Structure formats: structure tokens, C-alpha cells
Amino acid sequence: MKKTILCIMMLAFANLANGSGHHPAQAHSIIKPVADKATVSGADQTEKYLPYLKGKRVGMVVNPSSRIGNKASVDSLKALGINIVKIFGPEHGFRGNASNGADVGDSVDPKTGIPVLSLYGKTSKPAAKDLADIDLMIYDLQDVGARYFTYLATLHRVMEACAENNKEVLILDRPNPNGYMVDGPVLDMKLKSGIGYHPVPIAHGMTVGEYAQMINGEGWMANGVKCKLKVITVAHYKHNMPYILPIPPSPNLNTQQSVLLYPSLCLFEGTVISQGRGTYMPFTVLGNPDLKGQYSFSFTPVGIKGMSETPLWQNQVCYGLDLRNYDIQKLIKGKRINLSWLIEMYKAYPYKERFFDFKQSRQMGDFNKLAGTTDLKDQIIAGKTEEEIRRSWEPKLSEFKQMRKKYLLYP
Q1: What is the pTM of this model?
Q2: Co-location of 53 and 185 in the same domain
């Protein structure tokens, strides 16, 4: 079954649009899932938690990835008689139509009439008044297994708020599409931010349910509070199983290839190199206008509503790498993020002093916060090899791998 899934994945990758340019019909598209009947998400196992929800006032942290079958989990549970009193939306919003980094306001869901409170705007953590009319909070967001993903900070803040207000959190667990990989420098907590909230490596190899247990168990929340936590586990899941996402986890991770390249390519957000935001192939291409003549492949970022309205190098032709057909099996076999692209692009870029200078553009992030360390930037500039860089991640990476074992729910 595993080989069949991987073959179909590669065939699907080959059918993605080639060359530069934009393809509006492909916005928010994602490779169709191949059903693996042995793997069932926590949300889809309604028989395990519906009786527990009866008679309770329920809040839900959800977005478009929160599904029961082919239907939004909010709609499904409401139809099943569950009293959902409030929805909390993360980055990109409850309906997933906000661009990366854009503030999201509070609203009322027009379909259900349920109030929607944003956790990515003026408020990032539910207040006591927001939880006063809730007995239990459901957390059901598809994660991608990378420290940069802001949903992990949202998870922490929701758990912390619920712990402080004596509310229980029920996690409907989902597979991690990058669950096979535990790699990268462990975050230096001096660089803590919304894209690096805990002392974990870039790729943590855990599901949300496992990660939540780690937040609790390691005492990472304010004043060491503990959250009352219940996890509905994924049936018949293993960390190294290929898992094809049925719904994009965010607007700019709109293909399976982008999801699997994300742990390696998100570092480029702290550089002058575009990762394809402003195209319909984000996180599968890399480029910059100053690389003209060095690479034949090109693309032109433009403003795309709901994905990236003002991307880096907007309306300028970028030259670089096309990774849409990159063999993902190389990453899976190596179980490592790919540093060679970062090393290559730094060497190729002619104006070295600009490469990491995020003051040039509001669309560039702080590379040190993305990397979780000040060392990686210095190592790239110094011309260190990939193996030399990797050695510097020890012993902290091995120590994390050992600590992580305490919280694993799956082999």
C-alpha cells in the first residue's frame, strides 16, 4: 500500500504546471488524497468523543483543514446536536482566506451564526471572558511538523488559557505529513517568537496530540500550569507513513510537494530569495531578480488575494530553482531537511551583504528567528559544509529526540 501511495504521489507531482507564469485555476488546489483505509483521523472517529461532548458547551479552534469526512467539523458536529458556542480562528482565519501574516478580525460565521474570535490579530490568546461560556475546547488543526508553523504557538496559548481557567482541551489528532523527520537546530529560547515557541528542532516529527502532551509534560506554560488534556488518536498511524493532505493546511501550502518541502524551504523567508509567494506554486520554487544569467528557470510574483497580496519581488522576474518535480524520496530516505539549496543560493547571490538583511523588505523575516539560532547564518556566510553545520546541532538534537520519546502516541 505504501509503495502505491508514493507512486501516485509522484505521478501527481509530475502533473503540476511546469515553467514560469501563473495559473489561477490552480489556486488552493491540492493533490487528491489516496485513501488509506487503515488510517483514520481523530475527528473521523466520532463514536469515541460524541458521547463526551453531549450536554457540554463547546468551543472549537478550527480552520478549513478541520474536517469530518468531507464536511467542516463545525458543521458536522452542529448537525449532530453538539452545542458549539464559539469558534476560534488561527492565522489565515477560520475559513482560511487571509494571507500569511495578515491580522484577522472577529466576526460571526454566516453559515452557522456562531461567533468567531480571531487568535491572529489583536488577540493571540483567549481571555477569561472568551472562555466563560465554554465547558470544553476542541483543537482540530492540521499541522505540518515544522517549528515555523504558527499553529504550534496557537496550541500553546489555547492550552495555557484553558489551564488558567479550568477548561479541558480535546485534541482531534491528525497525521503529520513530515512525521518521518526530526531534524534541525533546537531553538535557542532567546529567539522565541510566533514562528519558534518551544525548544524544539525545525522538524519535530510529532502529531499535534503528541506535541500537546510535551507542552504539558515539560512545564512550558506560564507558571508551570497543566492543561486537562484528552487526545483522540489517529487509528493505525505510524510516523513514517506517507500521508497526503486532503485539504491545504494554509493558503501557501497548496500542494503536497509544498508541504513536504516546507521544512527545508521556509528558511528562505529570512533571505532575499523568494519562495514563490505571489505565484500558485509557493514553497516549490526559489528565485531572485539578481540571479538572472545564472539560472534559466524564472517566475514572476504578483499580488494574489488570500495568498500573498504584496509578495517579495512583486512584478519582478525571479531566476532560480524549480523544485516542483524534486524527488521527495531523497528527503524521506535521508530523514533530513535539505541545507544544500540554502548554501547554493547564498554562493550564487552576488550581493552577499544583502542576503540576510531583512530590513530591506517587510516581506522578509528574521533569519535567526526562523533558524532558531544565530549560528546558522554565520556558518553559511563562513562557507561551512552541510556536515560541519549539522555537527553543531549536537548534542541538543539528540537530547530532544530522547525527550520526545516520552510523549509519543504512535510508533
Answers
A1: 0.89
A2: yes
